[in-house]
Design brief:
2 copies of one chain form a homodimer.
Chain A: H1 4-11, H2 15-23, H3 30-43, H4 49-56, E1 61-66, H5 72-87, E2 91-96, H6 101-113, E3 118-121, H7 129-136, E4 141-144, E5 154-158, H8 160-173, E6 179-182, H9 189-204, E7 214-215, H10 221-232, E8 240-243, H11 246-258, E9 268-272, E10 286-289, H12 292-307, E11 317-320, E12 323-325
Parallel strand pairs in A: 1-2, 1-3, 3-4, 4-5, 5-11, 6-7, 6-8, 8-9, 9-10
Antiparallel strand pairs in A: 10-12
Helix pairs in contact in A: 1-2, 1-3, 5-12, 8-9, 10-11
Chain A binds a DNA duplex through residues 3-5, 13-17, 19-20, 23, 25-29, 32, 47-57.
Amino acid sequence: MPTIRDVARRAGVAPITVSRVINNSGYISAETRKRVEAVIAELQYVPNSLARSLRSNQTHTLALVLTDITNPFWTTVTRGVEDAASQAGYNVIVCNTDENEAKQAKYLPVLLQKQVDGFLFVPARSVAEPVNLIQKQGVPVVVLDRRVPGVEVDIVRGASERGMYQLVRYLLDLGHRRIAILSGPEQVSVSKERVAGYQRALHEAGIDQVADSVYYGPFTQASGYEKTQQILSAPPRPTALVTSNNFIAIGALQALREAGLRVPEDMSVASFDDLPPELVIEPFLTAVVQPAYQMGQRATELLLARITGQVDDPCQEIVLPTELIIRRSCRAVNEVVPQKSAVGHRDVPPTFHTET
Amino acid sequence: MPTIRDVARRAGVAPITVSRVINNSGYISAETRKRVEAVIAELQYVPNSLARSLRSNQTHTLALVLTDITNPFWTTVTRGVEDAASQAGYNVIVCNTDENEAKQAKYLPVLLQKQVDGFLFVPARSVAEPVNLIQKQGVPVVVLDRRVPGVEVDIVRGASERGMYQLVRYLLDLGHRRIAILSGPEQVSVSKERVAGYQRALHEAGIDQVADSVYYGPFTQASGYEKTQQILSAPPRPTALVTSNNFIAIGALQALREAGLRVPEDMSVASFDDLPPELVIEPFLTAVVQPAYQMGQRATELLLARITGQVDDPCQEIVLPTELIIRRSCRAVNEVVPQKSAVGHRDVPPTFHTET
DNA sequence: CTGTTAGCGCGTTCAT
DNA sequence: ATGAACGCGCTAACAG
């Protein structure tokens, strides 16, 4: 590994001159520049960013700490982050916490030590401490998705309460009166906000909420599956299910299918977040969707603005609007449906259908 | 930002003593250790990895350069990489090249400058140069997925040729004789290998290949869509389509649906790679799948072994076996199907079906 | 236009 | 068991 000094020696100049050639700083005669560049090429010299960062106090590296990149929502957010970062000359270290505070607690100090220039942070739980940890080190953070009470921090998130309100309103308009909600972990702000939106809609419709039509659990397909089985085995059965994320919805749909229930004939289902269109052959699930890519992108832009000091107003809260996408997984409840046997749908030939 | 010297001063010791406390190296009296630790906590001192790395020549950071994290196959690979890395105390910088050599050429030098300890590398094209670039700097690389001719390099990849052979054999056994293949970019090794597997199967079955039943194109849904339209408009129409990846398959299915063709009644479809089970409500597509998570994991383990010098045998080529998963998207070709009108499937009620 | 000096924060080497 | 000196590779500040 040649260093700047090796290059300097070989080119018969001082190290700083090489530095100036590399960074296009200060004045260099065309001739010297040429000679230095030749030596750089010859030696295949690669400047060491570590040393540079040690002096400049910037690494041009961002940390993205999220729950699980495997969820398409987060995949897309990540892509938004990486694109925005890369465009500005930054790299991104990605860390999965799996909603696990212990993992999160392991990552944060390491990233701090690596002197990342900023954090894009999806807190495993909505508590202040981890954010404080970062801020105390003077490192900019933008929180993603989840509100953190009791901290002054930039946040970019979706309109959870409003989005779920809108979704439940839609179901109410279809005539549904018994609607269950499968939400995420109770400690996560979006879970509670989505439940709040749900409750507001029901309340406005003058519907007394049954306490046990709200289910909290992990944001996983397994959870959606289990809770749905639970719901099915405990009458009175709701006519519609809403879920707080895509995985839960998929689990719910699987449980319904196994129970021989058709969607939407026997049960309407709708979800918060869905699957990217490139991944779905035949869009089916009605959903409120957040602009995942933009969430990553805008959060990164804000973070970079903080890092470069372009912005120093008080903390921003950017709430991205959701969009209700109506597909085929919900039906009007007073409509008469020809009832077959419970497993009658098995007789239908396994064929592809066109979207409405 | 306090430095090791601030801590030392405050604790009344030399910087090196603080260093020893942090790294548990050398001898420290219990008392001194306690005092130093107290000051560390008080000052919220965070060691600077940059300085440490500058001396130690290791950053405990890996670079993962892939095409597009948004493809579930790569998402899963990435998760495997991150898990394996994190377990060994390494972080991962993720970069998307979108199969674009220019982007790739931008990332590589930056990552080299950042002194990453190793590369997990999915080449945008199967050419030697980028790998050489990395290796010349003495940085370990493990190539993922795509063979790179003319270089000595570790590689972890799926059994493309064999997998596609198996898939086409399956279709031949079902009685198909006209099978088209929608493959990836011609410059990418897996595209050609999958075509080779396809050709071997046809050849063995004594089938004369029509030249234009092989289609190369990007690994995207858009490409699958276009090529399928092309195929449909140019008789003789094949009875089965195989695709070289999941996105292409989805595009193909969408084009078929738009054309009013049912799968598998009017056209059998099968793909290389599918969608993770957590993402699919009702698995439908017959596919040859690669163990994506393991691919990431094993590649990372190999890379780490190279980095730590545990392994110094000649380059390894780890070929991971694929698995044929038969679902409902292919039918036997001599079976009689009741023919409705071309768009007759639109009449079928939009209902969920149980998997066979 | 080019060079000298010094120091970013840490850990290795050698003393004490 | 603890410390002093030095240098990792680079660049800011100040000459000249």
